[in-house]
Amino acid sequence: MKATGIVRRIDDLGRVVIPKEIRRTMRIREGDPLEIYTDREGEVIFKKYSPIGEMSSFAQQYAETLSKICSLSVVITDRDSVIACAGLPKKEYYEKRLSADLEKISENRQGYRYRAGDRKLAIIDDASGTHFISCAFPIIADGDLIGTVVSAMTAQAAGEKKEENKNEDVEYRLIQTAAAFLAKQHI
Predict the structure, then answer these.
(1) For the whole prediction, is pTM greater than 0.70?
(2) Is 166 a residue whose pLDDT tops 80?
(3) How far apart, in whole angstroms, are the C-alpha atoms of residue 25 and residue 168?
(4) How many Cβ atoms from other residues are within 10 Å of residue 9's Cβ?
(5) Residue partners of 95: CB distance under 8 A and separation at least 6
């Protein structure tokens, strides 16, 4: 655990303000759920709660199945990082922070599809990622955004896309279906 040097008092309603700098660094947004942990030494720890993170083993199995059967590279995320991936290097993507582009796609709560000539959007914040977003669809459960399902492509595949074809429509529908299915599993 790292000390920040910031001290806050609890108000008469039991509230404490998490400083803006920490919220920005940890990507804590207004309305985000925080899980509270305590230990015997009196430490109170707030941890970002990821509803879909609890389903990470199920999400991993789903990604592997979708990748194997449909020959897709699949990434499943919570709101901040990759929680499952298949068809691409797991070491490169697993538990990595999402790119600003993917966060924006998720926050817009609409599907995204790469079109020939578009700028290639990275999946993770780390510039070492070798795959880009082919299509993405947010996972929305009970009106809350809990993650995103992404179909990934290499830079070479992006260069080969000349015009929209039926396979891309099928890919988009598969990713959309996966997002809807994972949202139902969250309940």
Answers:
(1) yes
(2) no
(3) 36
(4) 7
(5) 81, 82, 83
